[in-house]
Design a protein that fits this description.
Blueprint: H1 18-39, H2 42-49, H3 53-60, H4 63-71, H5 77-85, H6 92-104, H7 108-121, H8 123-145, H9 152-172, H10 183-199
Helix pairs in contact: 1-2, 1-4, 1-8, 2-3, 4-8, 5-6, 5-8, 6-10, 7-8, 7-9, 8-9, 9-10
Length: about 200
């Protein structure tokens, strides 16, 4: 005889619940870390989380939005790129540094500093941060500026190295007089280097 008081175990996909969002995020972290942003798919993530792909879109929208939630970056690059790219190639150096300082001087800068500190001590975070910089920022800048394909990866990496160095020294290590220098001073001195990396001879 079957004990009717004993609950039967449910099979199949997980329904929407308070735990569903965290299950999706956990599956996404593993997928993005193992396969990278380009090769991870919403269907793969949904399968690992035991949910329907529609629930992934319900909670997070697009794959890009899911990735941003996974990395926990404090900004959405799509909202910043118009300001960086305004005026075309000839203004990208100044625009990039100005936008960078504006973001880091805002409350988002605190979260950004925490992310960089975490990346320094965690290979997983470092891998995810590289994916974020490569797929969400640098790739878009390269596309919009129509860089020479053979030079684009090096130019993008040089720009990233300069901006990461600025973040580290001004906002994390707080090296003086860089840490307290006026924004316009930083823009005037660093923007020409960024402009050369973007459009000048290498």
């Amino acid at each position: 005889m079957v004990d009717k008081r004993r609950p039967t175990r449910r099979t199949g996909r997980r329904p929407g619940s308070p735990d569903t969002r965290e299950a999706i995020l956990a599956a996404a972290r593993q997928a993005f870390a193992e396969r990278g942003f380009d090769n991870a798919t919403v269907r793969q993530i949904a399968t690992a989380a035991e949910v329907d792909p529609a629930l992934v879109h319900h909670y997070f929208g697009t794959k890009e939005q899911l990735f941003l939630a996974t990395v926990q970056v404090p900004i959405n690059p799509q909202e910043l790129l118009p300001a960086v790219l305004a005026g075309g190639k000839d203004n990208v150096g100044e625009n990039l540094v100005r936008t960078f300082i504006r973001v880091w001087d805002s409350p988002a800068g605190t979260a950004g500093a925490a992310l960089i500190r975490s990346a320094m001590g965690s290979e997983w975070t470092a891998r995810m941060l590289r994916e974020f910089l490569t797929t969400q920022i640098l790739r878009r800048v390269i596309r919009q500026l129509d860089m020479e394909p053979s030079e684009a990866p090096l130019r993008a990496a040089l720009i990233a190295s300069q901006m990461a160095g600025l973040a580290m020294m001004r906002y994390i290590i707080k090296l003086e007089p860089l840490a307290s220098a006026p924004a316009e001073t930083i823009i005037a001195t660093i923007a020409p280097t960024i402009q050369r990396y973007a459009t000048g001879p290498l």
